[in-house]
Amino acid sequence: MGSKAGAQMTGAEMVIRALLDQGVDTIFGYPGGAVLPIYDALFQQNELQHILVRHEQGATHSAEGYARSTGKVGVVLVTSGPGATNAVTGMVDALMDSIPLVVITGQVPTHLIGSDAFQECDTVGITRAATKHNYLVKSVEELPRILHEAFYVARSGRPGPVLVDIPKDIQFAAGAYTGPEDVEHRTYKPRVEGDEAKIREAIELMANAKRPVFYTGGGVINSGTKASEALRELVRLTGFPITSTLMGLGAYPHSDKQWLGMLGMHGTWEANHTMHDCDVMICLGARFDDRVTGRVDAFSPGSKKIHVDIDPSSINKIVRADVPIIGDVGNVILEMTRIWKAEKKKADKDALAKWWQQIDRWRARKSLNYSNSKTVIKPQYAVQRLYELTKGPNTYITTEVGQHQMWAAQYYGFEEPNRWMTSGGLGTMGYGLPAALGVQVAHPDALVCCIAGEASVLMNMQEMSTAAQHRLPVKIFIMNNEYMGMVRQWQQLLHGSRYSQSYSEALPDFVKLAEAYGCYGIRCEDPADLDAKIKEMIEVDAPVLFDCRVEKMENCFPMIPSGKAHNEMILGDAAAAEDIGSVITEEGKMLV
Amino acid sequence: MLAKNEPVSRHVLSVLVDNEPGVLGRVVGLFSGRGYNIESLTVSETEHDKHVSRITIVTSGTPAIIDQIEAQLGRLVPVHTVVDLTNSGPSVERELALIKVAGAGDARAEALRLADAFRARVMDATTESFVFELTGKPDKLDQFISLMLPLGLVEVSRTGVAAISRGPKGM
Ligand SMILES: Cc1cc2nc3c(=O)[nH]c(=O)nc-3n(C[C@H](O)[C@H](O)[C@H](O)COP(=O)(O)OP(=O)(O)OC[C@H]3O[C@@H](n4cnc5c(N)ncnc54)[C@H](O)[C@@H]3O)c2cc1C
Ligand SMILES: Cc1ncc(C[n+]2csc(CCOP(=O)(O)OP(=O)(O)O)c2C)c(N)n1
Ligand SMILES: [Mg+2]
User: Fold this and answer.
1) What Rg, from alpha-carbon coordinates, does chain B have?
2) Domains of chain B
């Protein structure tokens, strides 16, 4: 696939050439007037696979799923105007979750820009705050450089979405192609090596810690599988406990004894208490999100904080770092490990043993316990059974947004990175189904399962048609509680159980809906049938909609109520007894 | 956590950017999107061959906010360097204003006298008006403008602040 530097070709051909030279094998898109030349160039080649979606938002989430499950850049191709605006949500989602995307949009021809032409919109204006960077291409001469630069910017430093808006006349114009080799960015050169003096300072803190904890995040996944391997070594070497954000699940194996579970609003009792009481916190590629910190002024008040992040703006944004380290977290972990070994550092054994005893007492609260039922399927039980029957290195899980997403995070165990795709920062309902398609495209032989809610899944349901067309046997496991459960839970806790507009009225029959799409439908209402039906879902070689009827009024616990600290979290059993609404202050109610 | 009650102070930031379309929009959008203040903003190409422009921003915030602003500016892809001139040693600041004053008799004579005292230059004159040009630190401009107010001030056009560090070193 050698690049044809210097070769004459049209702008549209350059797009295809540049994608191939960037190692792209698949793009997700939807045609329209302003991208017809590119679709024509696409038609005349067979190296690049195009997945036709049913809505441009679907294309962006599919590309996100593709990117997150492979570590590669996801690519989207859509038309001007409505094509571009439909793609905006997915770009913001990728921006919030640091997912590398290149989004190519068609634009009206250069001479019509600014004239309110048919399907014209100010795409670069609209997406300025939705992308890491964007370009309006002004001439065919600069097109190849911009395309290669877009890939460089998307994947370097803190990854994110980059948009390239290409007017139609430039797609037709001919020019000289240049390959990716000679693209060096003038200004964007993120720092990847951590400062050694700071790393040594961190090591000193770690070696003297009495109550340490690793708090890891999506940055470890962004850094690549090597970072996860390095993390495992460092954590075992030190013997410290480790927790992770929603975005970092899988970087450290869930089955390991040093693993405390996820932290934050719906994190485990042990993870949050460990964070609250620690004396040294080692934050690796996580950004102190408000879902994680709870009340910031009560967040881990007694600890020294080491913060490793590739983006200088993440440091000291929410929480003051005592030892800030700017660099790629994979590199920094390797460096930490090297220095720890070279200096023959030992953790404080006695202190650590006491710390683990304390942690074990927190663990003994068994904060993920719930009361199961013989008559209705409890959502937690559904995820547990799904996990037991689907687990394995070749299984990938995506989610929609809501209670089911949290139950998935709590009860599905991840052993490897890049197996867990969820919309964390933006919390985009409608993400999970198309994301699953993107994952399946990248891993045709894998078992790809989307844990969904009945409300979320309807937001991009049309993509079942994409699944059928491209024979993508994704398993959409809908935890149907007939409510926008997460909204209903907040209404119960904060608004006097007034369930304003959160009942999923007039739901479709998901089994018939699956059949209407040419897919396979399964319904399960009885816990006794659950295993057999999950097995059936796995066996079927087709896209499946699984309508799993679960307990309607179940709440998601543990929970740190808004405006509360880590050590003020509530558990399921306690929550049943007391009126939770009364524990949240007026100030807390203002928070989201 | 970050101290919320730290004092707010004024900072002058110099930002070198690639002079590409939309770069000013990115900078302004960053300030409005994240709720930072812009008290003044000036921009012009400074190195034509290298396509480099220099943006000078006067803003205010707590030390933590100013650090965030610097880091957020640094994240913008076309930004080369960001320097907080207020925090990095002595610097000079200048702003230019054009000030139109209309009137007759004593007020007119007084306006001209004050202009002279402030070393403002007369750029335009009619029998009933002056346009003064005044260069200096923003507070000097403020002072002159407030003196002109009762003397028939019509309108003011200000460039915003240009600033540079003292001494031999550049950004
Ligand atoms: C309904 C709902 C409930 C939620 N509840 C929780 C919850 O209980 N607990 C929870 O944790 N989250 C929860 N979230 C998710 C939450 O909103 C945030 O998305 C998440 O906490 C952020 O994860 P993170 O800190 O790992 O950061 P990410 O968003 O993954 O950001 C990664 C960080 O790493 C940095 N980085 C990227 N690449 C590198 C690299 N190579 N080297 C170094 N640094 C790098 C980035 O600059 C960034 O600062 C919830 C979301 C929803 C929708
Ligand atoms: C696009 C979008 N709109 C609204 C919301 C607010 N929201 C968060 S969770 C939720 C309910 C999700 O319901 P469902 O998919 O059934 O999941 P459940 O909570 O019941 O598991 C809503 C409306 C959102 N996150 N995304
Ligand atoms: Mg629901």
Assistant:
1) 19
2) 9-84 (3.30.70.260), 91-163 (3.30.70.1150)
- Residue A100 CA to residue B110 CA, distance in Å, equals 64
Q: A328: helix, coil or strand?
A: coil
Residue A553's nearest CA partner among A491, A472, A473 is A491
Q: Does A114 touch chain B (CB under 8 A)?
A: no
Residue whose CA is at the smallest distance from ligand 1 atom 51:
A424
Query: C-alpha angle with apex B23: B18 to B26, nearest 5 degrees?
Result: 140
Q: Is B166 exposed, middle or buried (0-12, 13-18, 19+ CB in 10 A)?
A: exposed
Give the residues across from A8 on adjacent strands.
A176
Half-sphere exposure in the Cβ direction for B165 (13 Å, CA) = 16
- Rounded Cα distance between A404 and A479, Å, is 7
Strand partners, B53: B17, B45
Residue contact B26–A317, C-beta within 8 A: no
User: Does any ligand 2 atom lie closer than 6 A to the CB of residue A455?
Assistant: yes
Indicate if the pLDDT at residue A1 is higher than 50. Answer: no
Active site residue A421: no
User: Does the beta carbon of A56 lie inside 6 Å of ligand 2?
Assistant: no
The strands making up A447-453's β-sheet, listed across from edge to edge, are: A420-421, A395-399, A447-453, A475-480, A544-549, A520-524
Which residues surround the ion ligand 3 when the cut-off is CB under 5 Å?
A: A 453-454, 481, 485
Yes or no: say if A301 and A294 are a contact pair by the CB < 8 Å rule.
Answer: no
Tell whether ligand 2 has an atom less than 6 A from the beta carbon of residue A72: no
As a three-state string, the secondary structure of A475-540 is EEEEEECCECHHHHHHHHHHCCCCCCCCECCCCCCHHHHHHHCCCEEEEECCHHHHHHHHHHHHHC
CB of A522 within 8 A of CB of A544?
Answer: yes
Rounded distance between C-alpha atoms, residue B95 and residue A4, angstroms? 52
Q: Is A397 helix (H, G, I), strand (E, B) or coil?
A: strand
Average pLDDT over every residue of A40-69: 98
Residue A132: C-alpha distances to residues A92, A160, A286, A514 (Å): 9, 5, 18, 37
Gap between the Cα atoms of A541 and A520, Å rounded: 9
Dist. CA A471–CA A448, nearest whole Å:
13
pLDDT tens, position by position, B48-82: 999 999 999 999 999 999 999 999 999 999 999 99
Helix or strand (DSSP H, E) at A261: strand A259-262
Question: Would you say the C-alpha torsion A535, A410, A225, A17 has a positive or negative sign?
Answer: positive
Tokens read off for A459: 């937001």
Long-range CB contacts (within 8 A, 24+) of A114-122: A118/A33, A118/A81, A119/A32, A119/A33, A119/A34, A119/A79, A119/A80, A119/A81, A119/A82, A119/A83, A120/A80, A120/A81, A121/A80, A121/A81, A121/A84, A121/A85
| ipTM for the complex shown | 0.92
CA A505 to centroid of ligand 2, rounded, Å = 14
Tell me: pLDDT of A574 over 80: no
The nearest alpha carbon in chain B to A300 belongs to: B1
Taking the whole predicted model, whether its pTM rises above 0.90 is answered as yes
